[in-house]
Amino acid sequence: NRQPIVAIDGPAGAGKSTVTRRVAQELGLIYLDTGAMYRALTWRVMSANIDIDDEPAIAEIVSQSEISLVESNDGVQVWIDEEEVTKEIRSLEVTANVSAIAALATVRRELVKQQQRWGAKGGIVAEGRDIGTFVFPDAELKIFLTASVEERARRRWQDIKEQKQGDMSLEQLEKDIQQRDLRDSTRAIAPLRKAGDAIEIKTDGMSISEVTERIVNLYHQKG
Ligand code: C5P
């Protein structure tokens, strides 16, 4: 007997993070950003100068590291072991390498186990690539958030500009997003894909509030 679970999956840059955070807030549920966990681990691997092809060394790191997501006044803080890496995990470097690391069997086994432990009592809105298909297949509400690659690249470009993360052309961002989607949707284990019972929302031209409201309404309709 557990509390409800909402699963929100979709490709890179579809607005999942902002929307999921808002949905969790409005429904009074806990927000679980599973991408942040794969990113934190990627950051750790890179900062330890381990080659991203060195699976045994990465497996070692996975088994030894502890990732925590801590609610704070200005959002969720991401920690790995004794280090706070909330900002670091959003860097272009981590973003470029995370899909390769997230494809490894040992990495997924360990992080999924942790996610399922955190979600065992329910009462969460979890965001990722394989939540509805794999992590919480019995979630009460499953959403698949998408948008055209052009729209997603434009949103990423805005973010990068606002956060002064550097200078990236729209064309380059489109290429990067497409490559990450390809890697995430063609990997052997738990690839990105819409669950059969997920509701797809195409967010082109929709505001964050509109998308949030749509999901909150769907949740109440299900209840
Ligand atoms: O959602 P975000 O862009 O932060 O996710 C970063 C990467 O982590 C994804 O591109 C994917 O490779 C991986 N990921 C995953 N499974 C999840 C969440 C994220 O493989 N549930």
UniProtKB/TrEMBL annotation:
Coiled coil stretches, renumbered: none
Residue ranges of every copy of the Cytidylate kinase domain listed in the record: 6-221
Cellular localisation: Cytoplasm
Region (Cytidylate kinase): 1-223
Function: Catalyzes the condensation of pantoate with beta-alanine in an ATP-dependent reaction via a pantoyl-adenylate intermediate.
Family: In the C-terminal section; belongs to the cytidylate kinase family. Type 1 subfamily.
Protein's recorded name: Bifunctional pantoate ligase/cytidylate kinase
The organism's taxonomic lineage, starting at the top: Bacteria, Bacillati, Cyanobacteriota, Cyanophyceae, Coleofasciculales
Whole-protein coverage range: 296 to 518 of 520
